[in-house]
Amino acid sequence: xxxxxxxxxxxxxxxxxxxxxxxxxxxxxxxxxxxxxxxxxxxxxxxxxxxxxxxxxxxxxxxxxxxxxxxxxxxxxxxxxxxxxxxxxxxxxxxxxxxxxxxxxxxxxxxxxxxxxxxxxxxxxxxxxxxxxxxxxxxxxxxxxxxxxxxxxxxxxxxxxxxxxxxxxxxxxxxxxxxxxxxxxxxxxxxxxxxxxxxxxxxxxxxxxxxxxxxxxxxxxxxxxxxxxxxxxxxxxxxxxxxxxxxxxxxxxxxxxxxxxxxxxxxxxxxxxxxxxx
Length: 278
Hints:
It is built from seven helices and eleven strands. By secondary structure, it is an alpha+beta fold.
């Protein structure tokens, strides 16, 4: 199969597949990631996240000083729900490609692997290229933006909101929904005169009809989990109004649906968000 891989599908029924961007094949060999290597146990000292027994994400520095993120899913016990279904890594791989096709800045995938036993997923991974000089949007808002002078806060919020609303309109109009658009899954990169917002980490992304109401609410609710702690109620409603083209009825409908979702799945309280040590 040629690179890039763009399909949300099972990529092998039995056995293993390993796909890599030809331009990065030799570079990834330096971290022991190549066909024939056991990538199910690959790790580094820099742990990004790790669950008890399934998901782990690591940061590696290559010989050329560039950084890559390696995320693997290893299933010790077979799960029938994964039979013939695309892996999370495959969905993310396709999602990153689709975002790029839509013109939304995203991470660059470099490699993908999958192991199955007669259709049941046993392990999978994805590698993406690190993006320098970025921070997670939630950390930027919590650690920097909310302590700025009011004039600077307003100008930076207006710039960020403009970019994000444009990206949301493009994605939702096309029918693409991230489904886990927490602000930590949006990177912010400061340029000389502006900002760049970069969408990442989309293993749950999917396609629905254009501006699907429930899928839109899901994306907005994910952003609101931090947004409610840094934006006033007026700023939150203004964001929805701008998204809805000043249609107050539609904006209020979204507002109430988001509120119901947050009541059902409450976000962490504000006091739990401590300043980053970075």
